[in-house]
């Protein structure tokens, strides 16, 4: 529970359920017909998401969970970037009413954001300023987005970076503000390119303020066994590939 047990107090623990994200999807019908349909105050924690369960292969790597959960009415989706944000999200969700899916990863806890950085449900966090384009990232890809922005800065391209820890409901105001102010959008996520963060942002952009945009993620494929860093590079989910997409979009 990311060290939160002592802070949850007497909150009923039968409203928290967690397992591998892939295994949680086995119960999707029950989640749909009971938790979401009846708008129950249940928090679902899906660990080992994306490619982070790297050596167990495609059968255990969940790249479809955001898509499956986002289509459920009443269901909120949160995707923390690191252990600090995960702890804040779990504690906040314990006291916020309504069903939610919290997407966790298997990586060794590492700090990607400042401990003092605020976290508000449904509100993206701008962690780097920029006026030329916006990189919108979630979860494990936020650190890659920051590294890419630093690389772009050396070529006089100032990239804004948004950390979208709440994928549903998505922060419409911050994303549209970035579209208007920077004119170019790139999204990056450790998830299938269909039905995830990129799809949510694209729907918002095309209806309200169309700008050049590229969606980065796993290109409609299943995962495979291997070292995590190898898989991230194989599927193009790294700072170098983000820089390439940014240049394609910007120029």
Give the oligomeric state of the chains in this entry, treating copies of one chain as homo and distinct chains as hetero. single chain
Order of helices and strands: HEHHEHEHEEEHEEHEHEHH
β-strand percent reads: 15-25%
Stretches where pLDDT is under 50 for at least 5 consecutive residues are 1-9
Helix content: 25-40%
What's the story with the biggest beta sheet? 5 strands, mixed
Strand order of the largest sheet: 1-2-4-3-8
Shape: globular
Rg computed from alpha carbons, rounded to a whole number of angstroms: 17 Å
> Between the first and last Cα atoms, what is the distance in angstroms?
44 Å
The number of helical runs is 10
Label this structure with key terms.
251 residues; alpha/beta; 5-stranded mixed beta sheet; 10 helices
Question: Can you walk me through this structure?
Answer:
By secondary structure, the protein is an alpha/beta fold. Helices cover 36% and strands 19% of the residues. The chain has ten helices and ten strands. Strands 1-2-4-3-8 form a five-stranded mixed sheet. Strands 5-7-6-9-10 form a five-stranded mixed sheet, with helices on both faces. Helix 6 crosses helix 10 (239-250) and helix 7 (172-182) crosses helix 8 (197-208). Mean pLDDT is 91; it is low at 1-9.
